Amino acid sequence: MSSPPTKLANRVLRLNVGFVLKEGIGYSRDFPFDEAAVTVADDLTVSDLRGNVNLTRTPQGLYAQGLLRAKVAQSCARCLADMQQPVTSRLGELYHYPPESAPPDSLTVGDDHYLDLTPTVREEFLLSIPMQPLCRPDCRGLCPQCGANWNDGPCDCPAEDRDPRWSGLLDLLDPDKEPPAN
After folding, report:
1. pLDDT (tens digit per residue) in 97-110
2. Which of 91, 119, 121, 157 is deepest in the core (most CB within 10 A)?
3. Which residues contact 135 (CB under 8 A, 6 or more apart)?
4. Does position 119 have pLDDT exceeding 70, yes or no?
5. Handedness of CA 101, 102, 104, 108 (dihedral sign)
6. Residues 150, 141 contacting (CB under 8 angstroms)
7. Total-model pTM
């Protein structure tokens, strides 16, 4: 089975906003997103990109506000199973226009009247990926001896040998064992 074609972000997340810039202050326009797969950057490809971005004309340029959701292919940190990790990008950015009048290090709309959301969306998506993604909250992980996935059931490995020096503390963890009498 072949994978669906992936659209480049420079076509999907790069918006022609010339008509919005020509409108008066307060003019607003929604840009909906509904894409099967998008390469946001060389290091990030997402699937099921959905959401809406609203652009409002301001005296300084355009205010972009919206929410984009997608999924990123990941591996579970405990059991190594392939999974689709949901990611979110919440936009609330001012893009200055014309770019010459923008403060240093601010976001701008290009002279070509294109607004590129790619850097902001990429950053937000990457920040929303957990450091240790889990396929499910109660993932049991892998057996350290044979590598069997404990989510599929127990393996045939013998119970681990415990260091006798820890036996006093380990007994405290056993709910069936009575505490020692004082």
Report:
1. 998 888 999 999 98
2. 121
3. 76, 78, 79, 81, 83, 151
4. yes
5. negative
6. yes
7. 0.76
